[in-house]
Amino acid sequence: MDERRMVRISKYLAKHLRHEPHRIGIELDAQGWVPIEVLLQAAAGHGFPIGREELEEVVASSDKKRYAIEGDRIRASQGHSVPVELDLPVAEPPAYLYHGTAPASVAPIREGGLLPMGRHHVHLSPDRETATRVGARRGRPVVLSVDAAAMRADGYEFRVSANGVWLVDHVPPSYIRFPG
Fold first, then answer.
1. What is the pLDDT of residue 65?
2. What PANTHER family would the database entry show (predicted)?
3. What are phi and psi of 69, to 5 degrees?
């Protein structure tokens, strides 16, 4: 499958498994899962047919592991704006985690910290390189360091998704190291 088709399928999955399942008539269970056949039938019925092999290739080749297949069902690994409970256990984070953002977001983050915005959690990267790639989606990236060890010591709970993204409810500005 060519790269353009893979990107189109991945974006289609993100839209419908994370944000708007109702648009194609699917219903996620409480943990965000949907039967693969239900998803494929709904996609075809809405003018975007996806082959089972294509779906499996997109899931397997995603460098960010955005989706998980378990048996005959699929879900997005994190990033939902619809109500789901991923049932991820509390985990001990590394001393520092990172967040990539756009320069225009730095001032509001200095004021209120990192907020989940339309998602369930704040997403943090395990390394600067990943945070740089995330931040670069909106232009020149700014990478913020988060003192996860101090947050954990102060009682904040971290979870880690299947694809290595660290999740926390909120990061107050006092735990963030800003560049420059």
1. 81
2. PUTATIVE PHOSPHOTRANSFERASE, TRNA 2'-PHOSPHOTRANSFERASE 1
3. -110, 130
